[in-house]
Amino acid sequence: MRITSPKPPWMGGVYRNRHGRGPRRPMFGTRLPRYRTRSGMFDDLVASQLKRLGQAWPELLKPVQFAVEDVPPSDPLPWEDEPRLLSKVFPAEHGIPPRIVLYRLPIQMQTRDRTELQFIIRDELVSCIAEHYGRRPEEIDPDWGL
């Protein structure tokens, strides 16, 4: 018996779809940049900023969990004077580590290009980390706000 490893869809043969009109494989390979979705690219930018900050401040970032959600919750918490629409810091409680959540769609709506998106992600992460630890954002990242 011969065992073959599965091939990715773009390496397989050309088959027709159910009605015989078009190919069944993707129009472009999954390794090409176009295959990435906007949410996937956003996650990559957040991960690269966390990696950069983690190299500078490993003791600050290690106990904190980071997450990305599409939109913020619709109801603000009772102690919030003004709700933060781009990100939120959740303090540690009952064995749950502190969390920082970035909201993807409000951040993407404020930007026009990838560079501007990268700067807003950087500034939001730095301001949330500074808020969590009670520091100024300039202490965490001297380039904050530039």
UniProtKB/TrEMBL annotation:
Organism domain of life: Bacteria
Stretches for region Disordered: 1-28
Any Pfam family matching the protein: Zincin_1
Name of the protein in question: Metallopeptidase family protein
InterPro entries from the UniProt entry: Zincin_1, Zincin_1_sf
